[in-house]
Amino acid sequence: SKHHPRRPTKMPSLGISCVRYLVFFFNFLFAITGGIVVITGTLIQSYYYHYSNFVGESFWTAPIVLIVIGSIIFVVACFGCCGAAKESPCMIITFSIFLGVVFLVEIGIGVAGYYKHEQLSGILEKGFNKTLESYPNDKGAQEAWNLVQSEMQCCGINGPEDWEPIYKNDTVPRACCHRMPVGVNKCTREYASTEGCFSKLSNFLGSKSLILAGIGIGLAIVQLIAVLLACCLYGSFRRQYETV
What we know:
Keywords: Disulfide bond, Membrane, Transmembrane, Transmembrane helix. The chain is mainly alpha-helical and 244 residues long.
């Protein structure tokens, strides 16, 4: 007797249904996490840009990549949902490839975030010393120091004494004084913040680097599970349409 191609069944097996719903579930998570990733990347990038005079441009790369990845996650999630709904092996394998690439990039972001965290102290020390030396004649350096001293409520690199070579008569920049007595108009070391800006900014940006690393690695683990599930679903669809 002749063999005829088996028609695809309209009612998928329980196993395929479970995997399909899991793929839908993970894509729903991706839609949410994609937005979170974009917001987180934007915030961290704004923090680094805010203090670009001290950290340099090298710190901008990872947050920008994170923003792009968050946007791509939405597109990848659409492929996964459509592939699962239409039982399309082609769309499912495309989804898996996209997700695999995103997985590798996010692992890279996590490693880069941790690596930058380890380098942060050296980069900040160099940036602080450079801008302090150019402070008298560089308006950009003056604005950067006024910004960090006002927002971090600190003074100098390690303390107000760092301004001694630049300011005379025990005075320091006005941004160093956050609580001056009524009637006092001159900011001196007596009224200046005693804590230096190096430790404060280092701790602040260091925590953001660790958040960046944690988000990258955390998402990568979730997406690795999704890739494995998508591959299972792809195999199930292929077997369902095999001829006998």
